[in-house]
Design the sequence.
């Protein structure tokens, strides 16, 4: 951390004069920014080239004179010609802080990039050194904060006394405020008070968020998932969710792996259900983090049923499911006009013959198949699909570790897969079957029938 050469402050400008010197686009940009406040904006320039009529300002078409500076809180010089330089001298003589656009060395103060969630304002300043960086960071923060945040912040302020009267416990209060300012639905005081009453009634009643973590890359998490992970008291996660994603949760949240890797069930589903109900019953906010999307082969149904039965509030946050990550990795459209009219997400593991017959006929009539949990039985599944009439020439693509940096793709046909290639790279895999697969970009893919030799 370096030494600050400037000190950030927020200047009260409501009702005060702010003078902008210049009549071009730069001046207009400053006026636009200032118009977000209730400042009394004055513009002076002998060269009025732009139209200020959409703002509540009265531009005066002459060079600024010393009395223009009387009582001004700030001066912006948006045109550093002879007029602007004279204005700078006048501002300094009057002792008014002055900003000269694009001339950091002439500025008494800089204007930061602003994220506006009034009354909450976030100002990002690079002390004039890199406005581009400041703007970039601003865009990221913009994306992180719900648009209604400011309104919610005001509501939080206006409810303070009620909250103190209704909720004694400090942690419960913090939760209420967190829930309020991050709520995507609450828009007015009535909604906020209803939320307050719920929190007061529950005092310390927990809840469970079933969160889709996506296929394993940190930046394929949704913003909502990320936000809730920051609020969780406990994170209950599957084996398939990489450590880096679990790490993104609140630092002091407890983490419980309930990993289910194939063949190793450290927790049974019933035990997980019981665990979720118990944790929430203790008043904790539980992030149940699942790979991909919780509603796709995520056993979400059972967990939701258990929570409902126990009367515990829950929320589901969708995630990018593995098949969609695989489609993105290989630029393979899963639906394609005149080729594939739909897509079936199916589990190869545990599929009986009737199911396979059904999928073969769906794929035969132009649907893409996305098969989950099928790596170890890939050859057998392919053979059975063929036995049910799916042509051996049907394109097949396999993506291991979809959505992650170490993904590996292979491409071939159903008959190639059926003929016994069984050695896949380490990691979870999705098998895509259907004519649309051939429309993808599989340039980096290994031919499926060479998988065996490669590994050998
Ligand atoms: N809910 C998850 C699926 C969980 S079932 C989702 O929506 O993606 C586990 C199966 O998902 C694995 O056997 C594999 O078929 C698939 N899978 C999960 N993550 C994957 C990944 N990164 N790449 C490829 N397949 C994946």
Sequence:
């Amino acid at each position: 951390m370096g030494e600050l050469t400037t000190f950030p402050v927020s200047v009260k400008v409501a009702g005060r004069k702010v003078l902008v010197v210049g009549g071009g686009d730069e001046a207009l940009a400053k006026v636009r920014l200032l118009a977000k406040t209730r400042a009394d904006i004055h513009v002076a320039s002998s060269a009025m080239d732009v139209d200020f009529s959409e703002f509540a300002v009265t531009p005066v078409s002459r060079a600024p004179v010393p009395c223009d500076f009387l009582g001004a809180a700030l001066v912006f010089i948006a045109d550093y010609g002879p007029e602007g330089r004279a204005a700078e001298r006048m501002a300094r003589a009057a002792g008014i802080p002055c900003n000269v656009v694009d001339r950091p060395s002439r500025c008494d103060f800089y204007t930061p990039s602003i994220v506006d969630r009034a009354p909450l304002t976030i100002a990002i300043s690079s002390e004039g050194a890199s406005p581009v960086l400041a703007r970039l960071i601003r865009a990221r923060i913009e994306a992180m904060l719900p648009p209604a945040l400011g309104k919610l912040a005001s509501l939080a302020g206006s409810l303070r006394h009620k909250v103190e009267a209704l909720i004694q416990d400090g942690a419960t209060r913090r939760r209420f405020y967190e829930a309020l300012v991050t709520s995507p639905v609450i828009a007015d005081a009535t909604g906020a008070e209803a939320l307050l009453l719920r929190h007061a009634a529950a005092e310390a009643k927990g809840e469970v968020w079933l969160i889709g973590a996506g296929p394993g890359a940190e930046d394929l998490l949704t913003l909502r998932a990320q936000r809730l992970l920051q609020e969780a008291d406990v994170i209950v996660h599957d084996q398939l969710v990489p450590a880096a994603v679990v790490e993104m949760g609140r630092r002091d949240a407890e983490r419980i792996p309930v990993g289910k890797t194939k063949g190793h069930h450290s927790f049974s589903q019933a035990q997980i259900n019981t665990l979720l109900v118990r944790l929430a019953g203790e008043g904790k906010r539980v992030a149940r983090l699942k790979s991909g999307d919780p509603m796709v082969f995520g056993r979400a149904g059972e967990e939701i049923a258990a929570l409902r039965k126990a009367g515990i509030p829950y929320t589901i946050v969708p995630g990018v499911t593995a098949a969609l990550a695989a489609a993105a990795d290989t630029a393979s459209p899963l639906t394609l006009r005149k080729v594939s009219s739909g897509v079936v997400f199916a589990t190869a593991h545990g599929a009986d013959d009737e199911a396979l017959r059904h999928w073969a006929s769906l794929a035969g009539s132009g649907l893409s198949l996305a098969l989950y949990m099928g790596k170890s039985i890939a050859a057998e599944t392919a053979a059975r699909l063929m036995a049910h009439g799916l042509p051996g020439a049907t394109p097949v693509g396999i993506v291991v570790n979809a959505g992650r940096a170490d993904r590996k793709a292979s491409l071939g046909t159903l008959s190639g897969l059926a003929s016994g290639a069984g050695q896949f790279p380490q990691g979870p895999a999705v098998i895509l079957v259907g004519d649309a697969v051939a429309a993808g970009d599989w340039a980096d893919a290994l031919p499926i029938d060479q998988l065996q030799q490669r590994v050998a």
Notes: The CA atoms of residues 237 and 437 lie 32 Å apart. The mean pLDDT is 90. The chain has four domains: 17-111, 149-201, 207-320, 323-450. The pocket of S-adenosyl-L-homocysteine is lined by residues 215-216, 240, 290-293, 296-298, 321-322, 326, 372-373, 399, 401-404, 428-430 (CB under 6 Å).
